[in-house]
Specification:
single chain; Aminopeptidase; twelve-stranded mixed β-sheet; 7 helices; Acyl_CoA_acyltransferase; GNAT family N-acetyltransferase; GNAT_dom
Amino acid sequence: MDTEDVRALFDRQMRREAPADGPGVVVERVGAVVRQTATAGGPGAVADGGWNGVLWSDLDAESADAAIAEQKRHFTSLGLEFEWKVYSHDRPHDLAHRLVAAGFTPEPPETLMIAEAAALSDELTLPDGVRLIAVTDAAGVELMAEVHEQAFGTDRSRTRERLLAQLAAAPGDVAAAVALAGDLPVSAARMELPPGTEFAGLWGGGTVPAWRGRGLYRALVAFRTRLAAERGYRYMQVDASSQSRPILRRLGFEELSTTTPYVFTP
């Protein structure tokens, strides 16, 4: 895989020309910035409005501060918190420092990791007594939320609302699965399948503490890889945490950049 070419393709398809990621969402380019605005008023929209933020920018030292101020005006006029998603290869080189100076708060960085689906194993190996079920309805979403709240220790009501809205409005654009040990949900993950792109995004992979180290994360990656390849997606993409990065590297993913969310709260 030519990592520079794939990163350029990712920037074009998933950032500069990004499709809306859910119902009630508007993606628009304003000058050298592409932003997503999600409001609660659109048909089938997520109740809390979904994700708001800057997906891509191509700025320089002369234009950056004005562009930052413009995005603050846009989102704060709507009363919305928003995120500026900064990649390590974005310009200008001091964009992160400018955002902090403008009142943004950085969150933990993640690593953009990508692999060709054809190069990954789709062999599904599960521990004895564990099975995977596809998430297709509200009951499945509740099982996912139960796993995530145990795995990450945070409330996942926003993810629950968003997934329910996606399943109702565009079920072909998302896939999710839960691993059950008997009737107990022990691991879960979802996958975004943006139409018109070559990238399937892996999100929310988590396992409850007592079941870690048994290959469930790896099994969920294989499950989603098989499904993405069947639907014609060439690449698998992950914003990897420090915990998942070593596993993904062993599976064949390569590191293409780092990404840090900078959050502005009105």
